[in-house]
Design a protein that fits this description.
mainly alpha, about 80% helix, about 0% strand
Length: about 240
Amino acid sequence: MSIALILALVGLALIDSTSIGTLLIPVWLLLDHRRIRLSRMLLYLGTIAGFYLVVGLVLALGADAVMGSMAEDVPADTEATPGVFAMALTVAQLLVGIWLFAISWRFDSSKPGAAERVKRWKDRAHEATTSPRVLMGLALFAGIAELATMLPYLGAIAMITAADMSALTMFIVMASYCFVMIMPALCLLVMRRIMHERIQPILVGVDDWICRNAESALGWTLGIAGFLIAQDAVGRLI
């Protein structure tokens, strides 16, 4: 696995770390006046990271199996090789990257309904502090709700699949990706435990910025992810 691929995956993981489920909800939980327990925060972050990991492995291993099956079905007297399928996957990755970059310009926090969507998530986070089971449900709900927008993660899966890794290596890489994805929230949790109320202004500032710029931030996220995904594909095509 090349250094360029590692850096691209780290960049995509950090982009994914700014989503509703991986950053916004943890910030709101840390701001809750009821002082959510450390174990419950770790339970929430572990649940959403585990959900992403399972989804990623299913998609990556499934895509790998499909590509292998397609290669086996090719008649022996044709010129097609597994390399052709790998190139087709890389071209598809390039198109996804270009598409992500193109649609990123459509997201604007000034559009009607953007603030209301953020408020609904904030209310759910406030209600979820009542029990560990509700917190796990919130993590799974956030993960499922983000399936349609986890495009950086889907791009990362395509890059990992195209790198032709073993199943074990794929698991380690994707587990590392999911850990990096929740790392900012873990850092805020550690700071909260060490600094107590002194970190409150930082959390409030993040919350205020999120509420004002959630849609625009998503646009930037998709644009950067699209660039990284397309760049990786171009690097393997030329």
